[in-house]
Amino acid sequence: MFEKSTWIRLPRNVVVGHGVIDDAVDVVDDLHLQGRPLFVTSPTPREVAADPIADDFVAAGIEPAIVTIEKATFDAVERVIEAAEAEDAAYLVGIGGGKAIDIAKMASDHLSMGFLSVPTAASHDGIVSNRGSVPDGDTRHSVAAEPPLAVVADTEILAEAPWELTTAGCADIISNYTAVMDWRLAKRLKDVEYSEYAAALSEMTAEILVDNADLVRPGLEESSWIVTKALVSSGVAMSIAGSSRPASGAEHLFSHQLDRLAPGAALHGHQVGVGSIMTAYLHGGDRGFWRNIRDALSSIDAPTTAAELGIDDETVIEALTTCHEIRDRYTILGDGMNERAAREVATKTGVIG
Ligand SMILES: NC(=O)C1=CN([C@@H]2O[C@H](COP(=O)(O)OP(=O)(O)OC[C@H]3O[C@@H](n4cnc5c(N)ncnc54)[C@H](O)[C@@H]3O)[C@@H](O)[C@H]2O)C=CC1
Ligand SMILES: O=C(CO)COP(=O)(O)O
Ligand SMILES: [Zn+2]
């Protein structure tokens, strides 16, 4: 008897475009959300978006509470939960980069409340995903969480954000190629749960972005449009899979380890992009594929070397040789690389000098 079942949880409204921040109150109305929202944001996104949206809510007779977080930690999730209870919030709105949105997402899951995702940077594909990503000591958790009820992505705000945030989002998408290779490998070797639909959607998203790389240019609002659609599509792939597998393989393990070894040195998307060059090499040897990843990254101005990340060569080697321990996720790294092999892949791909 066939007894499999699955829930694919997706946002109801995805509102993308010029000036759509002004529609936030209408989106809440459309979702029939009642009561007071708690905005979860961080310092710059607060100025850029949270305060202006709060003014619109006040004008509509709704008084939002606001909490500002600095880091994506379980403590921050706890602070938001406490603030939501203290302020008698009925739903949450995550406004900012990946960290603010992840915290709102996980807190709303804990509180069994809806949340809205308002990205102020096209820097990561967690905008619509049903996962939160949190470092915790030596490990990194991919936490099952609420997907947003709605996304409000204002391309005017996204286009005005520092350009490197957009190139980081592009690199997070380009890394889907190697994430899916790792997922297929894990399916073959470890029989992990696998969805061909999610894998195909994730790869196709990367393909479309790379095909449109010419249109991804600083100061061009259309770039934010293209990148945001790709980020949404990649998040949907994660929701279909019920895991971050379609968008997170060994290149993400490498990035998560860099976050521990060199905190704050580079953006998530940039780190996974450089990781992807090296894991593509591991998958394909000296054949051309890793060069395609590197060229796609450089065509949108994303870093392709340790120096461009602002990370020294030895830290790259340490991350490569230890990152398989970050979580129990089988990838091309298997049970880990030794130092000589790590040096070879990093040198051959030009990541270290
Ligand atoms: N849950 C998921 O599925 C996913 C989660 N992530 C997580 O997201 C995080 C990475 O996201 P990021 O956005 O790169 O990091 P982030 O949230 O730290 O943002 C990077 C910086 O950009 C600033 N910023 C945001 N909007 C701005 C604007 N309009 N103008 C000026 N500055 C602005 C932020 O204040 C922050 O200082 C990581 O923790 C990563 O693990 C990434 C991908 C998927
Ligand atoms: O960054 C992500 C996908 O781009 C999420 O991945 P993790 O599950 O590795 O945190
Ligand atoms: Zn990512």
Structure description:
It is a single chain. The protein is an alpha/beta fold. Strand 6 and strand 7 form a beta hairpin. The mean pLDDT is 96. The protein contains 15 helices and eight strands. The site of 1,3-dihydroxyacetonephosphate has 9 residues, from strand 6.
* H/E series: EHEHEHEHEEEEHHHHHHHHHHH
* Count of helix runs: 15
Approximate helicity band: 40-55%
Please state the CA-atom Rg, rounded to the nearest Å. 20 Å
Name the structural class.
alpha/beta
Strand order of the largest sheet: 1-8-5-4-2-3
What value does the average pLDDT take?
A: 96
Main beta sheet: 6 strands, parallel
- Give the names of the bound compounds: 1,4-dihydronicotinamide adenine dinucleotide, 1,3-dihydroxyacetonephosphate, zinc ion
Say how many strands there are: 8
Span of the ends, CA to CA: 57 Å
Summarize the model shown.
The protein is 52% helix and 12% strand.
What are the key terms here?
353 residues, alpha/beta, two-stranded antiparallel sheet, 52% helix, binds 1,3-dihydroxyacetonephosphate
Show the helix and strand layout:
Blueprint: E1 13-17, H1 24-30, E2 37-41, H2 43-59, E3 65-68, H3 74-86, E4 91-96, H4 98-111, E5 115-119, E6 131-136, E7 139-144, E8 150-154, H5 155-160, H6 163-174, H7 176-190, H8 196-211, H9 221-241, H10 250-261, H11 268-284, H12 289-299, H13 306-309, H14 313-322, H15 339-348
Parallel strand pairs: 1-8, 2-3, 2-4, 4-5, 5-8
Antiparallel strand pairs: 6-7
The structure holds 1,4-dihydronicotinamide adenine dinucleotide (NAI), 1,3-dihydroxyacetonephosphate and zinc ion.
Pathway: Membrane lipid metabolism; glycerophospholipid metabolism
Binding site for NAD(+): 98-102, 120-123, 129
Pfam family, one: Fe-ADH_2
